[in-house]
Amino acid sequence: MEETRHHGWIASARKREGSTCQQHDGSQGGQVIPSIDDLPEDIFRHIHALMPLRDAARAACASQIFWKSWRCYPNLTLSKESLGLSRIVFGEGKMIRDLSQTKMTRDLFSKVDHILKNHSGVGMKKLELKLVWCNKVDYCYLSNWLCIAVTAGIEELTMSLPRKSEVAYNFPCSLLFSGSENSIKYLQLAGCAFRPTAGLDCWRRLTKLWLDRVLITGDELENLLSNSFTLEWLGLSSCTEIVCVKIPCQLQRLSFLEVGQCIKLQEIESNAPNVSTFHFFGKFVKISFGGSLQLQVKDIQIRSLCQSNIFWYVRTKLMPSVPNVETLHISSCNEVYSRSAYASYCI
């Protein structure tokens, strides 16, 4: 009896094992169980796009299917952190540090170049080149990478270059105005020269522009803005060549304007009719709002650390032109306190 039960248990176990083997073989009862390899390609791309960059690259190394979707990876954030190059061993003395920084820069450029040259150009939507900590940038690489991205129909482009460079990189503006490839919606540049001319085509899709430590004159900026009819957000920081910022009335969609730390700046003149938020940081300058803008401004922030009488200027000159302001934030370290002026301001 025991032997019969024993043999029955073995037979039952073998039956279950056989059933499991059939499932692993991809069939059960004559029906084929779908494999992950049978998923549509667009689903693979969607799954892959949700992975962080380093995980997506590792998946591509482990799977032929993910390798195909890696060549169409949409959001490329390329920096020493995202590529695993952030650990630098600093030794005693400047020479050791310079060698470590040079090696990191060389490895970073090698990896970025490999990634972009092996990208198919299909599906690329966002490219971030964060090179601010590199000790030397080869501009030939930059031009090639930008050409690849723009040709692919990039929508968001961010490029941050080192703070101290002997010669500023001259951004190839003509790349952004090449007919059907004018697809940029978001552009953020830092540490370069940007020289748009009056003859360039309009920005058909640009909605957000941020320029930081960019060499561009007031006239060049005005030429750029006068052809940016879809612009909604504009930020300018540490642009040392700008003397006057003029916002043309054609910018009907512009709602956010921020200007800060432009050392030669003397005046901001805005005629865009729908700006609701205005932020200013740095040495205080003449600010004027024209057209129907005065009815739209709701939020103003002004921070000046080296001047006095900011409160007086805002109260007497600025506020009368923007009667519908709901939030006003002013910071000034050198302001001279006056009880009568404060009382008058509060009233």
Provide the domain count.
2
Query: What pattern of helices and strands is seen along the backbone?
Result: HEEHHHEHEHEEEEEHEEEEEEEHEH
Taking the alpha carbons of the first and last residues, their distance comes to: 103 Å
Q: Count every helix, treating DSSP H or I runs of 4 or more residues as helices.
A: 9
Structural class: alpha/beta
For the record, the CATH class of the largest domain is Alpha Beta
User: Remind me, CATH topology of the largest domain?
Assistant: Leucine-rich repeat, LRR (right-handed beta-alpha superhelix)
Please mark out the parts with pLDDT under 50 across 5 or more consecutive residues, or reply none. 1-27, 339-347
| Gyration radius from CA atoms, angstroms | 29 Å
Mean pLDDT over the residues: 79
Q: Beta-strand level of the residues, as a percent range?
A: 15-25%
Report the sheet with the most strands, covering strand number, pairing sense and barrel closure: 10 strands, parallel
How much helicity do the residues have? 25-40%
Strand order of the largest sheet: 3-4-5-7-9-10-12-14-16-17
Per CATH, the architecture of the largest domain is Alpha-Beta Horseshoe
Number of strands: 17
Q: Name the shape in a single word.
A: elongated
Condensed summary:
With 347 residues, the chain is an alpha/beta fold. The chain has helices spanning 2-24, 41-49, 53-62, 64-70, 94-117, 139-151, 218-225, 310-318, 339-346, and strands spanning 27-28, 31-32, 75-78, 126-130, 156-160, 169-170, 186-190, 192-193, 208-212, 233-237, 244-247, 256-260, 267-270, 277-281, 286-289, 299-304, 327-332.
